[in-house]
Amino acid sequence: MRYRAVISYNGAAYVGWQRQLNGLSVQETLETALSKTFGVPTSATASGRTDAGVHAEGQVVHFDAETSIPSEKIPFAVNTHLPDDVSMLLCEPVDDNFNARFCAKRKTYCYRLYLSRHRRPMLEGTHEHISVPLDFTLMRDAAKIIEGTHDFKCFEATGSEIKNTVRTVYEIKIVTGALATVPMPKQDESLADVPMLLNLVTGDEFNCTADIYVTGNGFLYNMVRIIAGTLVYCGMKKLTTEDIRHALESGDRTLVGKTLPAKGLHLIEVVYD
């Protein structure tokens, strides 16, 4: 019987999803757990690769297994064989023709930032630190230019051998939040007496998070990380919407922002028919 499962993982310790000779992958870790659970070698196919250091909150995989374990109990059984940074969240039986990779219709990634003058250690493993203000209005204007069906060659990392670089980005959404800050106590106060303050995010203030959600029918190598880097450059006023239009028309990678680090990228959701 074929099963579809949703997998979540922190990618910091892995060379990526796919099995590789140079280190431990998420695929190898999951397949080892599946094989122990079912008592026979069991392979898993994912909706797509994630690179070294990239996280997933909603990676979808399929695998074949003959088992008496009810599908809703399979995550409990598999997770006993998984490390703390990988977990199966859901599992259900599907048609034998289902393929996690080829049946996928759209994916949503999120690139997570935090804005602060100083590093926040609790966020460093999963967010990119931005130490200067960003103009979120300019970033959202730029995102509208990127949305749609385009030749995204300028948003592809160099060295890729893919010939068709046309993709559709259905939506880019930037969601801001607040970071907790503690004001300095007065002379006659202790720190414990000072309430935590939440800085409400408006405009380009510090002490906030910014999640850049990108939904598309497929992505080129490092495309989301380059889109995020380009939007950050727009927020810093290093690029304009006209610069992005020109880059899309010319396909020139040098005209857009840098590729942001892998640690801020999360695969959020994979949608099927």
Structure description:
The structure is a single chain. The protein has 273 residues and is α+β, with helices and mostly antiparallel strands. It has 2 domains: 2-94, Pseudouridine synthase I, catalytic domain, N-terminal subdomain (Alpha-Beta Plaits, 2-Layer Sandwich), CATH 3.30.70.580; 106-271, Pseudouridine synthase I, catalytic domain, C-terminal subdomain (Alpha-Beta Plaits), CATH 3.30.70. It is built from 5 helices and 12 strands. The strands form 2 sheets. Strands 1, 2, 3, 4, 5, 6, 7, 8, 11 and 12 form a 10-stranded mixed sheet that branches. A hairpin with an 8-residue loop joins strand 2 (45-46) and strand 3. It is globular and about 60 Å long.
Short description:
By secondary structure, this protein is α+β, with helices and mostly antiparallel strands.
- Alpha-carbon distance between the two ends: 20 Å
Low-confidence stretches: 194-204
* Principal-axes shape call: globular
Task: Please write the string of helix (H) and strand (E) elements.
Answer: EHEEHEEEHEEEEEHHE
Rounded mean pLDDT is 92
Helix/strand structural class: alpha+beta
User: What is the multimeric organization of the chains shown?
Assistant: single chain
- What's the CATH H-level superfamily name of the largest domain? Pseudouridine synthase I, catalytic domain, C-terminal subdomain
Number of domains: 2
Q: How helical, in percent, are the residues?
A: 10-25%
Radius of gyration: 21 Å
Number of helices: 5
